[in-house]
Amino acid sequence: MAKAKELKVTLVKSKFGRLKSHKACVQGLGLRKMHQTVTVADTPENRGMINRISYLLAVEEA
């Protein structure tokens, strides 16, 4: 069985002063603090959130 692809997502810019929908995407990805890194599944839903707030994130394949 193939392992599901994962992405390592790091919040590199502050979420304060951003649009409400962008803050919701940060929360939806499980990020709380600056420079926190989380591993998320590579799904279309997560990709959409990452694309919307790409200016706040650093993303790499896990």
Number of helices: 2
Q: Give a count of the beta strands, DSSP E runs of length 2 or more.
A: 3
The third-level CATH topology is Ribosomal Protein L30, Chain: A
Could you name the CATH class?
A: Alpha Beta
User: Per CATH, which architecture?
Assistant: 2-Layer Sandwich
H/E element sequence: EHEHE
Question: What is the end-to-end distance?
Answer: 18 Å
Q: Supply the number of structural domains.
A: 1
Helix-and-strand structural type? alpha+beta
Q: Please list the strands of the largest sheet in the order they lie side by side.
A: 2-1-3
Q: Determine Rg (CA atoms, Å).
A: 11 Å
CATH homologous superfamily assignment? Ribosomal protein L30/L7
Unreliable sequence segments? none
Largest sheet: 3 strands, antiparallel
Helix content: 25-40%
